[in-house]
Amino acid sequence: MRTGNLVSGPELTLLTEGRVEVLGRIMSGSNATFLAEVSCGGDAAWAVYKPEAGERPLSDFDAGLYRRERAAYLLSEALGWGIVPPTVVRADAPLGVGSLQWFIEGDHQEHYFTLYEDAPETHPALAQIALFDYVANNTDRKSGHVLRGPDGHIWGIDHGLCFAVPFKLRTVIWEFAGDPIPQALLDDIGLLAGAVPGELAALLDDAEVSALQRRVQRILRETVLPVDRTGMRYPWPLV
User: Fold this and answer.
1) Hey, which of 120, 156, 157, 177 has its CA 20 to 30 A from 148?
2) What's the confidence (pLDDT) of residue 6?
């Protein structure tokens, strides 16, 4: 189900080449995350800046979570799904190297739980995010990491804890567990079974690339969205 890019080339150019000014800290995350303004010429926009210097050390992920934010965007683009907002790596940002992601405007009181209950028209997009999270091995899909943009498009954010080799899926999206995956989506992920795009693979190590392909091969065999038989594959906090 290829949706194409929802944010066009000029926005990526602004993220890549624009001057970055930190406006303030976003306090909701465990790692230091900042709202920034990127500007170039007469254009300006907000972005979410996650510097490596602000990452809390983890026992199960190496430093450099910003690379995984970029890798999740490249995975979304390789699939043609437009789930992850445009994300680049900037070495020249004010607080050092980190990821810079296009800021999604919208009602930030909405999140996965409210969308699932109140907006059934979003269910196909939410189920697609569930599949994306399985492929990416997302360890932290909180409800607040699902946003609806002003045009109604559903986005997934916060992907620093993805692509581990051991299966670590933790997500709030289990309402679609066991549902058949549309053939169009299977066709999309099937492209990764043979080869992972070079730019994406370069952000991961060889074991992580191989594990991604094994997850793809498994879901192609099973053809249904994964089921949590333990009842424990949830992040905390849930929102």
Assistant:
1) 177
2) 41
